[in-house]
Amino acid sequence: MEIEKITSIIPEAEISQTGETVVKVPAEKLHQIAETLLNDKENPMDFLRDIVGMDWGEEGLGALYLLESTRTGARITLKAVTTDREKALLPTVSDLWKTALIKEREVYDFFGICFLNHPDMRRIFLREDWIGYPMRKDYDMNSNPLRMDNEENADMTDEYFLRPDGTLEGRKNVVFGEDDFVVNIGPQHPSTHGVLRMRTSLEGENIRKIDPILGYIHRGIEKMNESLTYPQTLALTDRLDYLSAHQNRHALCMCIEKAAGIEVPERAQYIRTIMDELQRIDSHLLFYSCLVMDMGGLTPFFYGFREREMILDIFEETTGGRLIQNYNMIGGVQADIHPTFQQKVKDFIKHLRSVIQDYHDIFTSNVIADTRLKGVGVLSKEDAISLGCTGGTGRASGWANDVRKHHPYALYDKVDFKEIVYTEGDSFARYMVRMDEIMESCHIIEQLIDNIPEGEFRAKTKPIIKLPEGVFTSSVETSRGEFDVILESHGDKVPYRLHYRSTGLPLVHAMDTVCRGAKIADLIAIGGTLDFVIPDIDR
């Protein structure tokens, strides 16, 4: 977004251009400015990409708000700070963007910033009786000894607002009442695809409300990053969404390379793009296999794993890994491709094209699949954008949001491919987007595989990398949607703050919207088509 346009909308803004352009706004005017940007006629900032909690030390606590216009692709980053560390307050923007309902809870959980007029100020990852806020720079790491007692989940939550005289007042809101019939789906349920727990209230067989309980596999990756050098941070990206491991690490490498001014060799760009698309096929094959098994079918599960095993064999020869991929490095890739890589990739694509119709014959046209997926779990385009449901979930609702098309990176501006968009927004459309994307990924790879140029596969870099001061970001299209890296550097060899935009957090948050009124029997199929991966959410 142009600086002149920003200053005309926000005259009181302080603009920093060290790295990305960051617009600091007065905390008390944050909501007003956010609403103005949302309703701007030329560039309506209707997509809240992320809210990144921050501890700026003496400057105060606050957050970065990453906004984008789905109409023009224009982006802007707002910064709001409160200097009161004891009573840190910011206005909520959850009435403007629904995704803020869960992302402000994440900031509250880790930084202790209370969002005024937010209806549900509970922790979202940590225990509700946790002491302190672990992402603060002055957090005492010994303040929470290991506890083996059960956590009690509150059925009441707090909402805070300011009285006209400036004093703070709170009121209670009901999560579940005494008359609600609440069942737990997870955290051990195999079809939640990880340790996810959904407290689900029912009226007969119909779902009334879903309250996700997260954090069962939380490993504090973003906190760990603050004590790791930039090359060391790479290893942790593979443990986020492990079915997007190449793409996650690609995003972090791109962010560091952009900040450091490192030029990646063309050969490495080709290899990275091919690997990203093989990873996408790998993920979508697993999506197909698990969705069908969740719904009671077993034969298609073996189909998907048969072809996926061929991809893992190709990965293993070059990267040494099957599930965890640690191949991308700052400046390129870890090692050159295996001598048989190109031929095996071509053979695999030829084989996949010959059998993909079997997938559709056994499941896509099956009367049970049609009945259980079509018209079930409908997500409107407006809700998809407001909830931040990117990837195949958003595109199934008519929202063209593919980062590869709208913010190209690597070689995506040099290859021809279609952005798969459906408009029905139901579970079947979400399924079809991913099945069609398998073939588009094959098409992308076919354009690149015989044209990999000779040359270096990695640029030479210093063993210790120091980035200039500033905020730096990068975006990629992972198997599940937009994955962003937000990095703030203070000129050291370690990041001051390194945050990852979870692709799955908005998807889990959307379960309440998508499932309300549906049958309890539909919950697993709906969750399967949203395709979230829990370690990516918990981070």
UniProtKB/TrEMBL annotation:
SUPFAM superfamilies linked to this entry: HydB/Nqo4-like, Nqo5-like
Enzyme Commission numbers on file: 7.1.1.-
UniProt subcellular location: Cell inner membrane; Cell membrane
Keywords: Cell membrane, Membrane, Multifunctional enzyme, NAD, Oxidoreductase, Quinone, Translocase, Transport
Topological category with respect to the lipid bilayer: Peripheral membrane protein
Domain NADH:ubiquinone oxidoreductase 30kDa subunit: 23-143
CC annotations in GO: plasma membrane
PANTHER family, sorted: NADH DEHYDROGENASE [UBIQUINONE] IRON-SULFUR PROTEIN 2, MITOCHONDRIAL, NADH-UBIQUINONE OXIDOREDUCTASE 49 KDA SUBUNIT
UniProt name for this protein: NADH-quinone oxidoreductase subunit D
Source organism per UniProt: Phocaeicola plebeius
